[in-house]
Amino acid sequence: MSGWGEAQTAALLLSEVLLALGLGPLLIGLVRRVKSRSQRRTGPGLLQPYRDLAKQLGKGTVYSETSSGLTRYSTWIGFGALLAAVPFVPWFFLPSPIGFSGDLIVLVGLLALSRFMTAVTALDAGSTFGGMGSTRDMWLGALFEPTFLLVIFAWGAPSGSTQASAIVLHGASLGLTHLSPALLLASAAFAVLLLAETGRLPVDNPATHLELTMVHEAMVLELGGRDLALIDWGKSVRFLLLLELFVAVLLPWGDALSLGLASLALALGLLVAKLFGASLLLGNLETRVAKWRLFRVGDLAVLSWVLALGSISLTYLVGVG
Amino acid sequence: MSRTIPFEGDDAPKSAPAPLPPRRRSDGERGSEEERWVLGAGRAGPTELGRSGLWELGVPPGWWRATSLDLLTAGAHRISSLWAERDPKGVLLRALWLGEAGTRGILVRTLLDAPPPRVESLLPELSPALYFEREIAEMFGVEFHASPDPRPLLLHYRHALPPMIAAPDRAPPLDERSRFDFAPVEGEGVYEVPVGPVHAGIIEPGHFRFQVVGEEILDLEVRLGYTHKGTERLFEGLDPRRGTQLASSISGDHSVAGAVAYATAVEHALGHPPLERPTEMRRGALLEVERMAHLLGDIAGIVLDVGYAAGAAQANVLRNEAYTVLEELTGSRLGRGAVAVGGLARPLPREGLRPLAARADAVAKATVALLRHLEERPSVMDRVRGTGVVSKEVARALELVGPVARASGLDRDVRRDRPYGAYRGTELRVTHGSTGDVEARLRVKVDEVVEASRLFGTFLRRSGEAPAVPPAEPPRDGPGFGVGLVEAPRGELLFAVSLDLERGKLSRVHVREPSYLNWPAIEYAVHGNILPDFPLCNKSLNLSYSGFDR
């Protein structure tokens, strides 16, 4: 499907996964830095998330007495699901090496799998907080995953495809008319669900120490060492994946269409610039809002859903797409 | 000394309780209030207690409950504290009752001289008595007859002898946990969430037992005592002048208030002449700037707990500025070591007071600006509005104090109702809310920061040039017992001091922190709230664990 040779496909796949693994923690560090600045703190360096990962990987793991042994595998499966999802997002070259029709729906499924594995891990430890956090996270999943699919359909409507590469290629070919009201509505819907799916404010506060308010953090309280590193690293990859999907669809220009060194370098530079820009915006947004009351988050899901529905209506019923 | 009193529990001989004297029937005849206490007590009427502005009234143990309930209902008094003291003949119980603003407080005492010490419980009529009685029971081995809740309060291990009766080193705790059953809640889908004592953040230890359906809190029970240090016992035998250090470290975030309350109690007990006006003004200035810093810390905490870190950072900057002013005045950021019995431990600087007042004023203005800023953030206001409501009825029944009580609509403030030191003859604006939610507490605290900065400026201006160092040798012609009541940032703080005047040593120091009265409020504030809003309720009540546990 993709016009790349076998060796090229393998190389590109490898580069995508390495990019996701390498860049994820940096973006987390960047957002933290923006938030620190808003609190008049210097904050930790940009590389702190890497140091944290190295520290956790160097530690031994301790398992709860009630743990069934599932935890020994579940964190790996969750992490693996996220790595498997990497190629379904358009990165800096097109078309995607293993793209196929409907690959974005597989992406949603893989993200849901990693969420499920984290929830199961949390339950396995047998602590109340794990149960509490996983209930909340699964509830968020139930709210936002349908919207995620709806946004994908809204995005895919103009090109008639739910394949990431096709959507982006089609968008890039349109020039500035790509930024249609329908696309902007769908992207706004995605921006809202991005906050929920990546556990950012106002849905979840990744910096909180208040265990009763936690969603994601409550699930990982019982983890340490390698397991925690996998979860944290996975979370940063998840963040990067969704952010990249967002900027790739919203700003589809500049991807390399051939393997020329210059075009690849340019595309990579653009990709990093787009991601940094999006992270800075997100960090700024996070400093301006408080965490919402838990059950108000349902309103966010509704908002996101209505925006996505509006986008689809525009495309199909009004024909503005 | 009754060293053989068995600790309340299984080992106690199962003898039938001694018959208690009949309760007094409420007589229809209404004399003057004081006459009625005399009748009720069947003894000599109340006597004046030194300069502390209190009546003291001794009643036999059989009249304890009747007298107390009379004060509560007929006398419209509220209990400020209830505590016990070792006595050669048994255990002495004391309670401080406060009436309307401007009236004298009444100190009721009774001597439980028939072993084992036993008295009728003031429950269920008097809710605040719950913690007092549980503590006295475990610490002094007093049995409160017909108490609905005989569980321990602070001690997590059983003691063979009550620790306040037997010296702790002579009777170490048994290797056996105290029995403590949480109130069960049953029903479909109800589950229990145990939180603490070790928390995910670096905060003081306390255990919270929630009964929850989904996310909604049905019931909460708090267990404390993890930081019990036997502080009251540590005071015993100290030179009264050295106790200020200990008093100011009970709740470190209002150390000036602690020191002033303690010093006031000792001064009354010693029969100290009234302090010079400038000295009082300086103490007042320290109290007010400490109040500013403390309340700003509270405000920062509330804003941080709704997840608005940038706003919290601003509040912390202001808090820091208030602490810096306190440091410039006393040399200590927390105002430690500034207050002494009979005055101040060191003179305040005489230069540069005007700029300090201006800085405090700037902090107050910035605090108001911060509140305006928060009001423009719907995500913040949505979290605080309607969350953690403590109704006026609950506040009154629990006899809450401080900003928490005022936010629920109770108009009480020691500074105005029983003015001491600098507050005598000073106009004071006491603000109070009505809704009793987190927002009301936030607004009351902002108002109090503003008022505190105004008072701080006033007191500094009036503090004059007089020497502020205490006299070398304190007098010893007082009543040997004194009470200090101070409006700490958290509310009414009480120190009661008994002195051995001959030896010049402290024989008993009782401290009742404002949080001691306010802790039960959390169990009511969370009703109907969801679990993730608990930390916000908790922070807005700002309860001191260390002050409770001592």
What does this structure look like?
The complex is a heterodimer of chains A (321) and B (550). Chain A contains eleven helices and no strands. With 321 residues, chain A is an all-alpha fold. Chain A has one domain (6-318). In chain A, helix 3 packs antiparallel against helix 4 (103-124), helix 7 runs antiparallel to helix 9 and helix 9 packs across helix 10. The two termini of chain A are 27 Å apart. The model of chain A has no long low-confidence stretch (mean pLDDT 90). Chain B is α+β, with helices and mostly antiparallel strands. Chain B folds into two domains: 38-177, NADH:ubiquinone oxidoreductase Nqo5 subunit (Beta Polymerase, domain 2); 231-549, Orthogonal Bundle (Cytochrome-c3 Hydrogenase, chain B). Chain B has helices at residues 33-41, 64-73, 129-140, 231-235, 243-247, 255-270, 277-305, 309-330, 353-375, 378-384, 392-398, 402-407, 414-417, 438-462, 514-525, 534-541, 545-549, and strands at 47-49, 54-58, 78-87, 90-98, 105-112, 118-120, 143-145, 157-159, 173-177, 190-195, 207-213, 216-223, 339-340, 343-344, 481-488, 491-500, 505-512. In chain B, strand 11 and strand 12 (216-223) form a beta hairpin. Chain B is globular, with a radius of gyration of 23 Å. In chain B, 53% of the residues are buried. Mean pLDDT of chain B is 85; it is low at 1-44. Classes of the chains: A mainly alpha (321), B alpha+beta (550). Chain A binds chain B through residues 35, 38-41, 128, 132, 201-202, 205, 207-214, 217, 221, 287-296, and chain B through 192-195, 199-203, 215, 303, 305-310, 312-313, 317, 377, 379-380, 382-383, 530-535.
Précis, in short:
By secondary structure, chain A is mainly alpha-helical. Chain A has one domain. The model of chain A has no long low-confidence stretch (mean pLDDT 90).
List the helices and strands and how they pair.
The complex is a heterodimer of chains A (321) and B (550).
Chain A (H helix, E strand, L loop, with lengths): L5 H33 L9 H10 L13 H15 L17 H22 L3 H29 L7 H10 L7 H17 L18 H5 L4 H26 L10 H28 L8 H22 L3
Chain B lengths: L32 H9 L5 E3 L4 E5 L5 H10 L4 E10 L2 E9 L6 E8 L5 E3 L8 H12 L2 E3 L11 E3 L13 E5 L12 E6 L11 E7 L2 E8 L7 H5 L7 H5 L7 H16 L6 H29 L3 H22 L8 E2 L2 E2 L8 H23 L2 H7 L7 H7 L3 H6 L6 H4 L20 H25 L18 E8 L2 E10 L4 E8 L1 H12 L8 H8 L3 H5 L1
Parallel strand pairs in B: 2-5, 6-7
Antiparallel strand pairs in B: 1-2, 3-4, 4-5, 8-9, 10-11, 11-12, 13-14, 15-16, 16-17
